[in-house]
Design goal:
Residues 41-56 have low confidence and may be disordered. Helix 25 crosses helix 26 (613-630). This protein folds into four domains: 1-56, no CATH class; 70-141 and 238-285 and 431-464, P-loop containing nucleotide triphosphate hydrolases (Rossmann fold, 3-Layer(aba) Sandwich), CATH 3.40.50.300; 287-422, Fumarase C, Chain B, domain 1; 474-686, P-loop containing nucleotide triphosphate hydrolases (Rossmann fold), CATH 3.40.50.300. With 690 residues, it is α/β, with parallel strands linked by helices. The strands form four sheets. The chain has a seven-stranded parallel beta sheet, sandwiched between helices. A seven-stranded parallel beta sheet has the order 17-18-16-19-20-15-21, with helices on both faces. The chain has a four-stranded antiparallel beta sheet with strand order 9-12-11-10.
Length: 690
C-alpha cells in the first residue's frame, strides 16, 4: 500500500509522490509526517495519562535538551505566562544574563494554540538571538524574519535611493513582470513563473530559522527574490521576527498583519529592549523640515513648470525669507526655540490670503504632478521635495493639541530645521498593547519599571510589573558611587576638573585590565583629557568612530583606556566580550540638555503624572543612559570588574531609589579618591588568583 503523509496541524493528506516534491504542508507550512506514525502519536497522546501531562506542562518544562535554568529565569517564565494567559501585559526588568529571550518564548508556548507570535526589537542584531533560541527549541513550526525590502533586494537597486524611490522603482519593475515590459525584475518574474518552487524554498528557510540576509543569498543564487517569497508564505508562519517598524509604524503594521493573516487579538507580542519604545513611538509621531529641502524644491520648480508653479515659488520664497533666513540670523548654533503654527499661518494669510493648510495642499498637489512627470520621463528618482514640504506642513498645522510642540533650531551643520515633535508615544503604543492576545515587554534597563509602564499605556490595570536581580555572582562585581564629585553645570570649575583628573589617574593606575571612562558630553571629555595622564594606550570616541576598531584596540592590549560619551555608540548596544572591559567609569549623571523641548516635556508630564514630570522626562532618561553605560562590564557570569559612578547625586535617595535593586543593594559609597583606590585594590586582590 503506498505511503501517505499527513499534516499534524491542519490534517492535510499527501501521496508519496507529492511528499517527494515538498516536505511541508501546502496549506499551513508544517512538517509532514508518515500518516500511520501520526495516527499512533495522536492515539497515544489522547490517553488520559498522557493528556494530563500535556495539559499541565508549563513553559519551563519545554527547555532545550541540556539547557540549565538560570537564576530568575523560571520566575520570569511563570509570571509572564500567567499574565499573558489572562490577556495581560507583562513588563519585566531583567538584567543581562537572565535569558530573557528564551524565557519570553517559553512563556508564550503553553498558550500558543491557534494564535501567532510577533517578536520585535530595536535593532536587527537582536534577531539572531531569537533565531538561535528557536533552533534550540526545535519547535517544528515555521518562523519568518524580515529586514526591509530595500536591504533584501537582489538587484541592488537600493543604493543611493531614498526608501520611497526604491519602493516605487520596485513596484514598477514588479508590475512590468505581468506584461513582460522592460525593464522588469527577473528575480520577481521567476517567483511568478515558479511559484510552487519558490514557496517550498521559502518554507524550508522558515523551518530552518534562516536569517534574512542568509535567505536573500540563497534565493539570489537560485534566481528568486527572497523578500517576496517569504512574504508569500507569511500566512503559513506561526512566528514573525522584525524591528519595531513592523509593529509600531501604523502603515507597515497593516501590511504585515494582512500578510501574516492574523488580527492583533489573535497574536502574542514580545518586545525586546522595551526601554526604547516610548522614545521610538514619539519619534514616529514627529516630523522635521530642513532648509536644504526648500533649496531642492526650488530647483524642482525650474525643471517641472505648470500652471501652479508661480504660486509654489511664492510660498517657497515666503518660507525661506520669513521663517528660515530670519531664524538663521536670530538663532545661535545648536539653539532651539518654539515657533507657534499661528505665526506661520499669519504669514500665509498676510502675504497671500490663504491658510497654512491650503499652502500645504498646494505643495502636495504640485508634488504629485512632479512625481508623475518624473515617472513619465523614466527617472529612477521619483521623490518630490515639494510633496515632502506639503506632508510636513500638513502635520505642522494639524497637530495642535498639547501632545505636540512646534520648534525651530540651528543644528551643528548650521542648517535651520523646522520641527513638530510629540510628547506622548502612547497614541501609538497603547492601542497595540490593549488589543494583543497578550504582551511581554522586557529589558535590562527598565528602571524604574513603573515609569516605562506609564509611558506606554493609558490604563495600567492589566499590566504586571516585575523586577529581577542580576543572575551574575555579586562577588564578581564592585559597584562604587562617589560623593565628592558632580557633573552639575554650576559646579564645573577648575577645582572639580582637578578631582575628575585625580579619579581618572587613580583608577587607571589601580584597575587590572582595560578601563572605559564615559562622560556626559564631548566637551567635558575633551577638557578632562587635556589634563589627565593615564599611563595607558588612549582610545577616544569621535563622531565617526567605528565600533569594530574599538574592539580591535581593546583585544590587542589589556592596558587601554577608552574615552567616550554616555548615550553614544560605545556605551549602548555594544558587547565587550570575554571581559574586554574590566572597569567602566560613569563621569557624571547624563541629564538631557535643558532646552525648550525638555521644559515642555516636563510640563506635559507634570499634567499627565501628578506633578512628577521631572522624574518622567528628565531623571529617568538620565538613569537609562547610566544603566546602559555601566552594563558594559558584566556580560557573562564569569566576567569580573568594577563599576564606578562619579556623581554625588547618585548617592542621594532621589536618584539611588530609581536604580535597579541590585545596584542599590551593592553600591558602596566612597567619600574621596583615596577610598575609591582602596576599594578597587581590595577587589582585585580578592580575584588575583582567579
Amino acid at each position: 500500500m503506498p505511503q501517505r503523509y499527513a499534516c499534524r496541524n491542519c490534517g492535510g493528506l499527501y501521496s508519496q509522490e507529492e511528499y517527494g516534491a515538498s516536505r511541508f504542508c501546502r496549506v499551513c507550512g508544517t512538517f509532514l509526517m508518515n500518516q500511520r506514525k501520526l495516527q499512533h502519536m495522536l492515539k497515544t497522546a489522547s490517553h488520559p495519562k498522557h493528556r494530563e501531562v500535556s495539559e499541565t506542562r508549563d513553559g519551563a518544562d519545554r527547555l532545550p535538551a541540556g539547557y540549565l535554568l538560570r537564576k530568575g529565569q523560571k520566575e520570569f517564565i511563570d509570571e509572564a505566562s500567567t499574565t499573558i494567559r489572562d490577556q495581560g501585559i507583562f513588563l519585566g526588568n531583567a538584567p543581562c544574563g537572565i535569558g530573557k529571550s528564551l524565557a519570553a518564548i517559553l512563556a508564550v508556548l503553553p498558550h500558543f494554540e491557534e494564535s501567532k507570535l510577533l517578536i520585535t526589537f530595536r535593532t536587527r542584531s537582536q534577531l539572531h538571538i531569537y533565531l538561535k533560541e528557536f533552533k534550540a527549541l526545535n519547535s517544528g513550526f515555521p518562523v519568518v524574519s524580515l529586514y526591509s525590502k530595500q536591504l533584501m533586494c537582489p538587484v541592488k537597486i537600493r543604493h543611493g535611493l531614498s526608501y520611497y524611490d526604491f519602493s516605487e522603482g520596485c513596484r514598477r519593475l514588479k508590475e512590468n513582470c505581468e506584461s513582460l515590459t522592460r525593464p522588469y525584475c527577473r528575480f520577481f518574474l521567476k517567483n511568478l513563473g515558479k511559484k510552487r518552487e519558490t514557496e517550498e524554498l521559502a518554507l524550508e528557510c522558515a523551518h530552518k530559522f534562516m536569517a534574512p540576509l542568509e535567505a536573500t543569498k540563497l534565493f539570489w543564487k537560485r534566481g528568486f527574490c527572497a523578500y517576496e517569497a517569504l512574504r508569500s508564505i507569511l500566512h503559513k508562519a506561526r512566528v514573525f521576527l522584525g524591528t519595531y517598524h513592523y509593529i509600531f509604524n501604523p502603515s507597515i503594521r497593516g501590511f504585515l498583519l494582512k500578510d501574516f493573516a492574523v488580527n492583533l487579538d489573535k497574536a502574542f507580542l514580545i518586545a525586546d529592549e522595551a526601554h526604547n519604545i516610548p522614545a521610538f513611538a514619539r519619534e514616529l509621531l514627529s516630523d522635521r523640515l530642513a532648509d536644504t529641502t526648500l533649496d531642492r524644491a526650488q530647483r524642482e520648480t525650474e525643471r517641472f513648470p505648470n500652471d501652479t508653479v508661480s504660486s509654489i515659488r511664492d510660498y517657497l520664497a515666503l518660507l525661506d525669507e520669513q521663517v528660515f533666513r530670519r531664524a538663521k540670523k536670530a538663532l545661535k548654533k545648536s539653539e532651539l526655540r518654539r515657533l507657534q503654527p499661528e505665526t506661520v499661518e499669519d504669514l500665509c494669510l498676510e502675504h497671500y490670503g490663504v491658510s497654512g493648510l491650503e499652502v500645504a495642499e498646494a505643495f502636495s498637489d504640485y508634488g504629485e504632478y512632479v512625481k508623475q512627470k518624473r515617472q513619465e520621463l523614466g527617472q529612477e528618482r521619483l521623490l518630490s521635495y515639494n510633496h515632502r514640504i506639503g506632508t510636513f506642513l500638513k502635520a505642522f498645522f494639524e497637530k495642535l493639541d498639547e501632545t505636540y510642540i512646534h520648534l525651530i533650531r540651528r543644528d551643528r551643520e548650521n542648517d535651520v530645521v523646522l520641527e513638530v515633535r510629540s510628547f506622548d508615544g502612547r497614541e501609538i503604543t497603547a492601542p497595540i498593547l490593549a488589543h494583543t492576545r497578550g504582551s511581554i515587554l522586557m529589558s535590562g534597563s527598565l528602571s524604574p519599571p513603573q515609569i516605562y509602564r506609564d509611558l506606554m499605556v493609558h490604563d495600567p490595570s492589566n499590566v504586571v510589573v516585575r523586577e529581577y536581580s542580576s543572575p551574575f555572582p555579586a562577588e564578581n562585581r564592585l559597584i562604587l558611587g562617589a560623593e565628592d564629585v558632580s557633573s552639575r553645570f554650576e559646579l564645573r570649575n577648575n577645582e572639580m576638573l582637578k578631582k575628575w583628573q585625580q579619579y581618572i589617574e587613580v583608577i587607571s593606575n589601580t584597575n587590572c585590565g582595560n578601563v572605559a571612562f564615559f562622560f556626559t558630553s564631548y566637551d567635558l571629555m575633551r577638557k578632562t583629557l587635556n589634563v589627565a595622564t593615564t599611563g595607558r594606550n588612549i582610545v577616544v570616541e569621535e563622531r565617526g568612530t567605528k565600533r569594530s576598531n574599538i574592539l580591535k584596540a581593546l583585544k590587542q592590549s589589556s592596558n587601554t583606556a577608552l574615552f567616550g560619551v554616555m548615550g553614544g555608540k560605545l556605551s549602548e548596544g555594544i558587547d565587550y566580550p570575554d571581559n574586554l572591559l574590566t572597569c567602566v567609569v560613569a563621569m557624571g549623571l547624563p541629564y538631557a540638555t535643558w532646552d525648550v523641548y525638555q521644559k515642555g516635556l516636563i510640563h506635559y508630564y507634570d499634567k499627565q503624572f501628578s506633578g512628577d514630570g521631572e522624574t518622567y522626562a528628565y531623571l529617568t532618561p538620565a538613569i537609562l543612559r547610566l544603566i546602559q553605560t555601566i552594563g558594559r562590564v558584566h556580560r557573562s557570569s564569569q566576567d569580573k570588574g568594577c563599576i564606578v559612578m562619579l556623581d554625588e547625586r547618585i548617592t542621594k535617595p532621589k536618584v539611588q531609589q530609581k536604580l535597579p535593586t541590585y545596584i542599590q543593594q551593592e553600591m558602596k559609597i566612597v567619600e574621596n579618591v583615596g577610598a575609591c583606590r582602596r576599594k578597587i585594590e581590595q577587589f582585585w586582590q580578592t580575584h588575583s588568583g582567579n
